[in-house]
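W.,

You were right to be curious about this one. When I first looked at the sequence I had no strong expectations either way, so I just let the prediction run and decided to look at it fresh. Below is the sequence, 217 residues in total, followed by the output.
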Amino acid sequence: MQEALLGFAAMFALTLARVPIAFSMGIVGFVGLGLLRNWNAALASATAVIYETGFSYALSVVPLFILMGNFVTRAGMSQELYRAAYAFFGHWRGGLAMSTVVACGGFSAICGSSLATAATMSKVAMPSMRKFSYSPGLAAGSIAAGGTLGIMIPPSVIMVIYGLMTETNIGMLFAAGVLPGILAVSCYMGAVAFTTWRDPRAGPRASAPRGPAGSAR
């Protein structure tokens, strides 16, 4: 128990020193195993883990999902998703925030990463909501909430990792995430509608004839 607490404290200290968490865990694990057993065992364990993880066929889908998300972003599909959602909801009160949530759901179905979804849609949607004087809380909240859809709507990187760790059928996990993802999008849109109903100034109607395309670029 004492060794575990010391290892956790060392990892926490490395993290505070701005060492990436993965490297912090690796360093603490390597040094701890070397001190508790011997350095040859630590070297053999580190070599085996790096080889098995780096050459795992199942885990190869994770960087491919991230790469696909980068391709989609470079191709401008995130802006196209936002424009399409804006065409349906832009004329409503809080329509830009609703469009952001829907676009996040569509982008999540492509890249599978919550961080990538939130980072991409913040660049696309935030300028438009600022232009139409949306409240900072509603604008940031719609992007942050929509970003969480990345771990739920398939293909989800987290679902892939969970399926590999628990030996669960990944296809069944993807199928199980469809309806909760749609329900989450509907609930987020309902939350936006309720927020603008309570405070109409938080999300005014966007009546620009050309939509958010010009401000999103």
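Here's what jumped out at me. The mean pLDDT is 80. And, maybe more interesting for your project: Residues 60-216 form one domain.

Coffee later to discuss?

I.
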